[in-house]
Amino acid sequence: MDKKRAVLGTAFIVLSFVFWVLPSVSFPFLDRSGSEYFKESLKTLTITYGVVRALNAGVSVVKDSEIEVAPGGVGATIAAGEILDPVDDLIERFSSILLFSLISLGIQKTVMFMGVKLFFKILGAGFLGIGVYFLTGRKILLDIGLKLVFFGVVFRFLLPMTAVFSDFTYNSFFKEGVLQSKENISYVVKLLKTEEISKKQEESILEKLKGIQKRFQIEKKIKIIKDYSSKLIESIITLATAFVFQSVLIPVFVLWIFVRFTYWIFRL
Questions:
Q1: Fewer C-beta neighbours within 10 Å, C or N terminus of the chain?
Q2: Which residues on adjacent β-strands are paired with residue 67?
Q3: Is residue 55 part of a domain?
């Protein structure tokens, strides 16, 4: 066996064991920025989800009510849902988008944490393959070792860099619109909570008077929703666009690059 190959093989094997016992190392800017991004993004999404669910609850209460078309109880009644169905449907769909975004960010945060913890282990496995190649001359071990090293580097740095890019994109293009949209939705939720709708049955004169008050309350809430419907729809679309772009499109694009890059590496 060539002495130089023996020295190189031994050095790589020693390095592989060193990497295996080394604790995980954090890269200050990249990892701190990535962690802060996921922390703030999850916080923003959670708060937004709570506000949207409150809006959904307020609309649902009104939607399940009935309004008398004519006064005095002699006219027909119409379901409030016939008026509020489009808004309620949009809110429901947006709630699903928010939930999916929360899950997506949670997975990305977990994968980034795994990359930090497993980086040296993957490098160690790659260096071990390279070291054994120098000692035995089996080229397949060199191929596997190099691919593991490349995979480890991509796995370690891809998501932190994605987080930094997503954070830059959010702050540059979406942050102002997201904050304003959340304020718009919170304001409507506050208006809807100003009056509580009584659900007691109208069996006496007093309860009938309450029923009239209830009808006016419902009509008032419907008017609020109708008056702010365009702003609500605009705000929901703004939020949905920002969160889908931030937590779905950018990660999917980066994942696609990761898959293609990994596939290219393993075909070398």
A1: C
A2: 78
A3: yes
